[in-house]
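User: Quick sanity check before I run a bigger batch. Here is a single chain. Can you write out its predicted 3D structure?
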Amino acid sequence: MSHSPRPLSPLSSLIFASRWLQLPLYLGLILAQCVYVFLFGKELWHLLSHSVSMGEQQIMLIVLGLIDVVMISNLLVMVIVGGYETFVSRLRLEGHPDQPEWLSHVNASVLKVKLAMAIIGISSIHLLKTFIAIGSLGSEGSTYTADGVMWQTIIHCVFILSAIGIAYTDKLMAQAAMKPHKSGH
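Assistant: Done. Predicted structure follows.
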């Protein structure tokens, strides 16, 4: 026996329907994803067409740039799919062979941790690119200053600490949510 949902008040209906205002934002992120696909193709073509005349470090920098584009694209997919599923409407992918494994248990907490980890990965690639570029250019001709590299490293460490803080807070919240259930047995 199923229960019919009780009708919402007009104000509640308006507030609940306001979640659809996020739809253009997600569609805009899909367009941004298209830009990254174009950028990836352009950089891959540059690598393939000029690899004979490039040194190993130049090739490595381009490959790291390609990895960076892929990681940002993965971040976009997590935000688009996970955010839409969490905050707008269900995608109803249950049983679909291509449903991402992580989507079956996505919620705001899981999404925050996944996004923080993706940002750390992207920051790591940027930092590695900086270190390789400095090594390949030597001190003269480098566009990187010691202060710039130091700040980039500090910001990366802040990202790591933030992700640890988010994960720890979510763990504490999950433990607190489980305590009432344990005491009832």
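The chain has five helices and no strands.

User: Great, the batch can go ahead then.
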